[in-house]
Each structure stands twice: as C-alpha cells, then as structure tokens.
C-alpha cells in the first residue's frame, strides 16, 4: 500500500511521476520469516520510501507504527506496549501511533506513559510531517520540489535488531 499511495499522489508530494518508470524499488526484509502482529510497518515503509524519493532524511529520534491504507489512512495496530518499550530500549522517546489506538495508550501503565511522548496520527501526511527532518506538507500541485527523485535506484534494507547484534 505504501508505494501505491505515494505513486497515486506523486504530484502532491513533489515527485515527478517519471521517477516510478526510471527507478527500481527493492524492499528487502531479511527477518521476514519472523512472526509479527500484523501490518504495523506500513507507515514506516511509506516514510522510508518518501524519504528516499525526496532525498530527505527521516528523524532518528522518532519511532512510528501503523497500518497504511491505499488512501493514506493510518489504521490501529496491536502490540503497542511492546513497541513502545522497544523504542525506549534504543533511546527513542517519541512514538507516532495511530489515532485509533488512543484507548490502548490510555490503558498503558502511567509509569510507561510518563517516559514516552505519544503523537497520534490519523493520516500518512500527519506522520510525514512528524517524522521527516524539517517536517513535510504535501501540496495540491507539482512544485518542482528541490531534491525530488528523477531516476536511479531506491534500496531500503530493514534488519532486525537481532541480526545487527549478531554481527
């Protein structure tokens, strides 16, 4: 859903639509066989793709989770407590969470909620504004955004912390 959403909004995102014909996108998840709670990496993949296409970095001090629809809505996820704890373990204190997970956040222990700043997002544009360095606002027309991708390769590799620790 992430790449399809970006393609469908390329002009609003400042991307030349030719980029999708001139760019190979390869997503590799080495730990793909590890069981997961569901499609909660959708917003993270969309953020990484837009970052690569625009050549704009993602903030390193923010974690994110959420399922992404083809229309850019951020859907609720499971395992929120564990995801927040994982972010805190690596020193991240700000986590973007789907708006529809507000009740799950309210159920977290107060001691955990005090240690993390939760930013609720309902649409992928909200997430991009929170997570791309300098923020991000989509426009209604092509604005020839400086640094927009015009061809080449986009290669994103996600490695599990387990694999990183093994090296």
Short summary of the structure?
This protein is of the alpha/beta class and 167 residues long. Helices cover 34% and strands 17% of the residues. It has 8 helices and 7 strands, in the order ααβαβββαβααβαβα.
Polypeptide structure, described:
With about 170 residues, the chain is α/β, with parallel strands linked by helices. The chain has one domain (about 1-20, about 40-135): Ribosomal Protein S5, domain 2. The protein is about 35% helix and about 15% strand. It is built from 8 helices and 7 strands. Strands 2-5-6 form a 3-stranded parallel sheet, with helices on both faces. A two-stranded parallel ribbon has the order 1-7. A hairpin with a 5-residue loop joins strand 3 (about 65-70) and strand 4. Helix 1 crosses helix 3 and helix 3 crosses helix 7 (about 125-130). It is elongated and about 50 Å long.
Please state the overall shape, judged from the principal axes of the Cα atoms: elongated
Strand order of the largest sheet: 2-5-6
Q: What is the averaged pLDDT score?
A: 83
CATH class: Alpha Beta
| Number of β-strand runs | 7
Let me know the largest β-sheet: 3 strands, parallel
Q: Regions with pLDDT < 50 over 5+ consecutive residues?
A: 140-167
As a percent range, the share of strand residues is 15-25%
Structure annotation, total helices: 8
Features:
single chain; 167 residues; alpha/beta; Ribosomal Protein S5, domain 2; two-stranded parallel sheet; disordered C terminus
């Amino acid at each position: 859903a992430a790449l399809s959403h970006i393609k469908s909004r390329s002009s609003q995102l400042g991307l030349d639509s030719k980029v999708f014909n001139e760019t190979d996108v390869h997503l590799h998840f080495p730990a793909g066989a590890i069981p997961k709670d569901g499609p909660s990496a959708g917003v993270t993949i969309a953020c990484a793709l837009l970052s690569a296409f625009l050549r704009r970095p993602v903030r390193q001090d923010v974690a994110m989770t959420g399922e992404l629809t083809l229309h850019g809505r951020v859907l609720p996820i499971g395992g929120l407590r564990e995801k927040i704890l994982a972010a805190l373990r690596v020193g991240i204190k700000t986590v973007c969470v789907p708006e529809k997970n507000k009740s799950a956040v309210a159920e977290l222990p107060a001691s955990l909620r005090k240690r993390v700043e939760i930013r609720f997002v309902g649409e992928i544009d909200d997430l991009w504004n929170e997570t791309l360095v300098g923020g991000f606002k989509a426009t209604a027309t092509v604005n020839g955004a400086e640094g927009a991708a015009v061809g080449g390769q986009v290669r994103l590799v996600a490695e599990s912390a387990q694999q990183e620790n093994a090296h």
